[in-house]
Amino acid sequence: MHGVASAQQSAAPAAANAPPAATRTAVVDMVVLLKSHPKLNADLKDFANQQRAIQTQLMNAERALQEEARAMVEMHKPGTEDFSRKSEELDKKMATLNTERSKAQREAILRDTRIKYEAFKSIQEEIQNFSQTRGVAVVIDVRGIDPDADELTNAEAEVGQPVVWSAPGVNMTIPIVQALNQRFQKFPATANVVEGRDGKPKVVFLNTNQNEGGPSIPQRPGPGQSPPTATSPGNQGVRN
Fold first, then answer.
1. Are 38 and 190 a contacting pair, CB within 8 Å?
2. Which of 111, 117, 100 is closest to 50 using CA atoms?
3. Least buried of 38, 65, 204, 240, by fewest C-beta within 10 Å?
4. What letter would DSSP give residue 18?
């Protein structure tokens, strides 16, 4: 009896740590989700406009100091007390301008990161909501082949993909795009995601010729997965 009890006790931890009998898995293309994100596109557009205004202001201030320096040379003889005093004033103004420029650059990097991270979190939430209602336990990022990259680059990226193959029904990129569009419907749509001729999710931008462009998102090219084409999430994007 003691031997049976010991065997049962040792088997209990192993059973507790064992994976579920059937783990449902899905894949998404994060580059497609980020490029088609309505709020991200709107936020980055506003951010770009603000940055242009800030850069214009800084350039105008620099030009004004350059004009002031030229006027100093014309009005004051080098080596005189007035020239030295004016030169010192200009140096202080230029140092202040350089400080403002550095501060603007740091703030721009922080805001750009914050905008993209907020978009990522919203995508993560929609993926979680979609997955939990369908019993999906694992979602893997499988990014599509870069149409602008050469064959060797894409071949190397394909070999490095975390997923070697997946069935078309496990790609839930398009349902997540639809969920994000619904969540952020107050923002103007800037892109659609459709199934391309090769069966992979493709970003199509509206009122622009920059298809496959959009937000600057670091890409990790890899084999695209064939997504579903239905117009509602349904039971797409899951696999037992």
1. yes
2. 111
3. 240
4. S
Please give the single-letter amino acid code of residue 30. Answer: M
Q: How far apart are CA 160 and CA 170, in angstroms?
A: 20
Closest CA to 173 of 137, 199, 207: 199
The rounded distance, in Å, linking the Cα atoms of 151 and 159 is: 12
DSSP letter for each residue of 126-182: HHHHHHHTTTEEEEEE-PPP-TTS-HHHHHHHHHT-S-S---GGGB-HHHHHHHHHH
E-assigned strand segments in the chain:
24-28, 136-141, 191-195, 201-205
Cα(216)–Cα(213) distance, integer angstroms: 8
Dihedral sign for Cα 223, 141, 156, 112, please: positive
Extract the tokens encoding 238: 């899951």
Pick from 160, 233, 215, 168: nearest CA to 32: 215
Select from 22, 24, 29 the least CA-distant residue to 228: 29
Express each pLDDT in 72-128 by its tens digit.
999 988 989 999 999 999 999 999 999 999 999 999 999 999 999 999 999 999 999
Asked whether the beta carbons of 152 and 166 are under 8 A apart, the reply is: no
